[in-house]
Specification:
7-stranded mixed β-sheet; globular; 252 residues; 5 helices; alpha+beta; BirA Bifunctional Protein, domain 2; SH3 type barrels; 2 domains; 5-stranded antiparallel β-sheet
Length: 252
């Protein structure tokens, strides 16, 4: 089966963010699978408006235009599929012990190596398009204290100067496969995500949300991709947004 993702690639030197470019192209009718890759982003961003450090040539700054067929309510599974593809690539092709932190960060030894931001245009319960943005740290030797979150890179984990071209060659087929799964076999995505995310089950966590923190024990993912958290009083709460911090491993 021919991969749809990556059949066409637009390479740009400097952009505000690859997601910005991809959204404009998607709104203008660009076909599914078009990849936008930039050498540098001047305004890269992650979830909840956070900035993403995008130094020239140090990382993969990639956005892919998607035309999902699933209802908008199922769109979170696309984000989970992207995280699975990245973690699987790092593990199988670069021998990096990666794991996923809900919902879309990929970590190594507790340090962030990849961030994912999926942005969608919704009409009713229909997705006109989605843009899958992925940033992976590749060649960085160090990170500024100002980024706030401990980070790492492929180079720091392997000692090898992996090229962006090589990483893309391994990543795109997995992105394609897991994106297809998100459209027709969401359960497969959820199962693989949980396999690659030790914090998804039986971990005591604090979820930071604008309306206040929630503390409980993770009990896996719900069918739509929400994190199932059991509170101290036994009530189960579906977490659809927020920052999750692991406190300790709990008993099953």
């Amino acid at each position: 089966m021919t991969n749809r993702l990556g059949l066409a690639v637009l390479r740009l030197e400097t952009v505000s963010s690859t997601n910005d470019v991809a959204r404009e192209l998607a709104a203008s009718g660009a076909t599914e699978g078009l990849c936008i890759i930039a050498g540098q982003q001047t305004a890269g961003r992650g979830r909840q408006g956070r900035s993403w450090a995008s130094a020239p040539g140090d990382g993969l700054y990639l956005s892919v235009i998607l035309r999902p067929t699933v209802p908008a309510s199922n769109s979170p599974v696309i984000t989970l599929a992207a995280a699975v593809a990245v973690a699987e690539t790092l593990i199988s092709d670069f021998k990096i012990d990666a794991e996923i932190k809900w919902p879309n960060d990929v970590l190594v030894r507790g340090r962030k190596i990849c961030g994912i931001l999926v942005e969608s245009a919704i009409e009713g319960n229909h997705l006109s398009y989605a843009v899958m943005g992925i940033g992976i740290n590749i060649l960085q030797r160090a990170f500024p204290d100002s980024i706030g979150t401990p980070a790492t890179s492929v180079f720091l984990e392997t000692g090898s100067e992996v090229t962006i071209k090589d990483l893309i060659a391994f990543l795109l087929p997995k992105l394609d496969r897991w994106y297809r799964a998100s459209q027709s076999r969401a359960d497969d995505v959820l199962a693989k995500w949980q396999e690659l995310s030790p914090m998804s089950r039986n971990c005591r966590v604090v979820v930071e949300m604008p309306e206040g923190n929630v503390e409980g024990i993770t009990r896996g993912l719900l069918p739509g991709g929400a994190l199932d958290v059991e509170l101290a009083n036994g009530v189960r709460r579906a977490i659809v947004a927020g920052d999750v911090r692991v406190r300790e491993t709990a008993r099953p």
